[in-house]
Amino acid sequence: MRKPVEKTWDLAIDPDTVRLFILKAKAISAAVNDDYHDGAEREVELEDTHAGHHHDGLAEEEEEDLTTEELRELIADLNVDEAADLVALVWVGRGDYDAAEWAEAVAAARERANKRTAAYLLGLPMLADWLEEGLEALGA
């Protein structure tokens, strides 16, 4: 666990917004982990239900896609400063930067900013954990 350093930064993104992103990222991760528990492949079970058409699996898949799409849209709606802070939080949480290097992390995130920020973040396997650790490191 990292100790927060004296605050020398201002977040452009509200920490509560980041916490919402964390919850959504955890929901996405949980859905993936439930499907691939212990790396074992699952057998497809077919039910003979001629009377009704039950598509629970499709509904669950659609729900996961909605959560992913919601998070993608929320990230896409961020302004440049907020998006840079979000990426910088991930980098601090991942250990690429220390909390004392916050300004450098944000500057690097701004330099690398592009329209694929959401895809980049959603592709990170530990997005929720790194965001949490980033907030904790900053004392936010």
Q: Could you explain how this protein is built, in words?
A:
It comes from Aquibium carbonis. InterPro entries: DUF3775. The protein has one domain (15-34, 54-138). Mean pLDDT is 78; it is low at 33-64. It contains 6 helices and no strands. The longest helix is centred in the first third of the chain and has 21 residues, at 15-35. Helix 1 packs antiparallel against helix 2 and helix 3 crosses helix 4 (102-111). With 140 residues, it is mainly α. The protein has helices at 15-35, 56-76, 80-94, 102-111, 117-122, 127-138. The two termini are 15 Å apart.
Kindly provide the radius of gyration, computed on alpha-carbon positions and rounded to a whole number of angstroms.
Answer: 18 Å
The portion of residues assigned to helices is 55-70%
Largest sheet at a glance?
Answer: none
Count of helical stretches: 6
Calculate the terminal CA-CA distance, rounded to whole Å: 15 Å
Give the ordered list of helices and strands: HHHHHH
Explain the layout of strands and helices.
Elements: H1 15-35, H2 56-76, H3 80-94, H4 102-111, H5 117-122, H6 127-138
Report a brief summary of the structure:
The protein is an all-alpha fold and 140 residues long. The chain contains 6 helices and no strands.
For the structure shown, list the relevant keywords.
single chain; 140 residues; mainly alpha; 61% helix; globular
